[in-house]
C-alpha cells in the first residue's frame, strides 16, 4: 500500500494533473508548495513565507529597474475621499462596483450576558472613504500641490502598496480582493514625453517578465473596450499559460490630460502660460505569481525560474550510516559556503539551503520538488569518497540525476541556473508560438472557439467597439491586445467587416 | 535685502528654532527637508521620496536582522472580521475607539444635473470589517490553522504592512491614522522560549536604534497600566528627544496564552497532550522617523545618521568660470565613481549624489543642509589644481569646512561617516544622561514637573496601578518604563509608599 502510494507519487505529485483539471491543479500546486491560502476575510488571501519570498524578489528586482529609470518611491494614503473619486467620471464608474467603503471610525463594545463582547460600529463619518482600488485620484491631488512650473516636470513616482477591489470570484494570486502591487504615477510637460514614458515602462515589463520570470509575453495595446477607466491608451503584456488562456500580466496607461484636468495638475509652461500636465500610470501585482505558477509548473508541483526562487539550490545530505553522518553534513555546509562566497546569479548572491532535517530522503526530495527549487544537490557517503555530487534539476524529470565532480558543479553553477531559466523560457515560448494561429476567415474563427482549450487567434481587425463586444460575448473571448510588433502589416480584409486593414488583433480566453 | 536674508538664513535655516517652539520647529524641519505632508484623508500623511527613502533603509536594515534571527516574512489580510476582534476582550476594548470600519462593498454612481457624478455607498456587508489596527487576531487565526504539533514550533513570522488607528491629534510620523510598520508574531512551545524571544527582539531594537539611528534608548518594561492590550508583559525602548520628552520607539510583547486561548492556537505536545502555545508580538513603525528627527535635527534642519541617509555624500561642483566647468563636473563624477566602486559603509555601497544643477551654490548648499545629508563635498577650480576637496559635515557648524587632499578623503571616508554617527550618538547620550535625575523625595518629585521642559525622573517605585495613574494624571506624566538595567538595586523607599523596593521607574512627559 505504502509502496503503491509512493509509486503513484513518483508518477505525479499533484492531483489532479493539468490535463485532468487545470484550475484545481493550480490550487493544489499552491497548497503543495505552501505558498498561500484563503482567509476568512472575503476574497483575501494569506501569503505564506514561500509565496511572499517570491514577491520580495520580484519587488527588489523591479525596484532596481524603476530607480535606474529615474523613479522614486513614495507613499500615499490608503483611504480616498469619495469626492476625489467623483472627479473623473469614467474612472469612478470603472471602479464603483468593487470599492470597500469605510463609513465609521470607532466601535462600541457591548458586554453580553455570557461575558463575551460584541462590537458595533459607531462614529459615523460625514464623508465616507474608499480603500484605494488604485491611486490615480489621491496621487493626482498631491501632484496638483507639488507641480507649479515646467521645472518640476517630469515627476516620476512609484508606490509599493496594497489595494482592494471587491472580487466576486476570487482566485489565489490571480484575482483577490486585496492584492499587493506597485503603481507608478508620472506627470510630464508634453504629450510625447508622457507617451514615451508609457512605452518605456511597457518594454521594462516585457523584459522583466522575460528575463526574470522566464515568461515570453505579447506586448500590445488594448482596444477602447478593454482600456483602464480614464485612460487614452492602455498598453499590456499578455502571457499565455499552459491551458492556453491569457493573463494580463502588467499594464501601462497613457492618461492624457484626463486626470490632470479633473484634478487641476497644472503648471506654468516655458511660454509663461498655464497648462495641464500629461500623466501616466502603470502597475504589476501579486498576479505575477499566479502567472508564474500557471506558466511553468508541472504535475509534480511548482517550477520556479532561478531569479525569483527564494531558495535556488537545496543541498540534501544523504546519511544512511551514523558513522559518516557528520562528515557528510559538514561537506554540505562547506559546499554551501563556497557557493555563497564565490558565486552569484543575476547580480545577487546565491540563495542556498542545506536541508539536514532528520526525516526520510524521499519526503524531503518531494517537498523541494513541489516547492519548485531549481536545483537539488545530494551528497552521500559514496559521493564524499569520489568527490562528486548528485545534481537534480527541477526543469528535468523528477528522477533524472547526474553525478558530476563537485568542482565542476561549482565552476558551472551560474551557467546551470541560466540554462534552467532558458529552458523554461524556451518551453513557454514554444507553447505560446504553437498556439497562436493566424485566422482570416470568419467561419474558421467561429468554429475555433468550440474546442476545449483553444489558443489565441490573430486576425486582421477594424471592427467597431460594438462589433468587438458582440463577438467577445458570443465566444466568451476578448481582444487581448493589438500586438505592437504585428501592426502595420500589409492590409488584409478585416475578419468581420471585410475592409482591408493593417491592424491585427489577438483574441483569446483569459483569467 | 537679499544679503540680509541670506545672513539671517546662515544663522538658522529653520524658523522657529527648537528653543522658540519645538513642535512647530519639528513641522518646519519636515517641510524644509521635503519629507512628508498632511493629506486630505483625515490624519493620514503623504510620505514624500526623501522621507520614504529613510523608511526604505530602516526597512532593509531591520529586515536583515529579522531574517538572521530566524524570522520569515508573510502577508495577512488588511481587513479583520469584527468577530475576530471580539475574541480577546481586553484587546478589543483597547483598540475599539480608533478602528476604521468597512461596512459596504460598492458604490452607486448618481449622475447629477450638472453632468457631475455623485457616489453613494451600497452593498451593505452582513459582517463589517475593521482595517487592522494591529494583526494579532488575524495572524492568530492563521497560526491556529498552521500549528498542529510541537514540531511546528517555534513559528516566527514578520509582516511589513500599513495599519490604521483613528487618531484625534495626528502629528506627521509620530502619530498618524495610517502608518507603516513591521509586526512580528511568534508562537512557542514554552513560556520560557516565548519570553526569550520577547527579550531577543527587545535587544535587537535597542541595538538597531543605537547602531543605525544613533539613538541611545532606555530599555525597560512597561507597567501594567501602560501595557499593550492583551499582553502579559510589554518591553519598550524609550528615546529622549531634544525637548526632553520621551518617545516610545518600539515595543516587544509577551502575550502569554491570552491570544492562543482566545483563538485556539493549540498543539500536541511532546507528551501527546494538547496544549496552548505561548505567543509574542513586536513592532516598530514610521514613528522611528519622527523620533530620528526630534533626536538629532537642529535649527538648520534635518540631521541624518549616515546609515539611514538616502544620500550620504553630496558632491557639489563649484563652477564660477565657464572654461573650467566641464573639468570640474568631470572631477566630481569621477570622485563619485571611485567612492561607489571602492568604498562601503555598514555593509552597503555608499549613496552618493552629484548635484550639478545650474542654480546658485548657496541655495544648493542650504537645500542639502536642510535635508540632512551627512557629508557635503565641494570641488572648485582651485581644488582641482591643488588636488583637494572642501569637506563639510552636517554634524558640524554649517560654515565649518576643511580642505583636505582628495585621496585622504577617499581613504578615510568610512571613518568619517562612522565618526558622524558616533558624534550624533554621543550628543544624544549626553542629552539623555544629563536629563535623567534620580529622585527619592516626593516633594522634589512634585516640584520637578513645574518646569517648562522637564527631563525624566528615576525613582524607587512600588505603588499600585491606581497610585501610578493618579500621579500620572496630576503631573501629565507616565511611567515610561521600569528600566531593565536598573532593577534589583539595593532596596530604597518607594517615593510614594515609602516601602523599601528594589524596583526603579522612569517618569516623564511623552509624545
Automatic annotation (TrEMBL), chains A, B:
InterPro entries in UniProt: aa-tRNA-synt_IIb, aa-tRNA-synth_II, aa-tRNA-synth_II/BPL/LPL, Anticodon-bd, Anticodon-bd_dom_sf, Pro-tRNA-ligase_IIa_arc-type, Pro-tRNA_ligase_II_C, Pro-tRNA_synth_II
Coiled-coil residues: none
Molecular function as annotated in GO: ATP binding; proline-tRNA ligase activity
Highest taxon of the lineage: Bacteria
PROSITE patterns, A to Z: AA_TRNA_LIGASE_II
Enzyme class, first EC level, given as a word: ligase
Described purpose of this protein according to its UniProt entry: Catalyzes the attachment of proline to tRNA(Pro) in a two-step reaction: proline is first activated by ATP to form Pro-AMP and then transferred to the acceptor end of tRNA(Pro).
Subunit text: Homodimer.
Protein name: Proline--tRNA ligase
Source organism of this protein record: Oceaniferula marina
Phylogenetic classification of the source organism: Bacteria, Pseudomonadati, Verrucomicrobiota, Verrucomicrobiia, Verrucomicrobiales
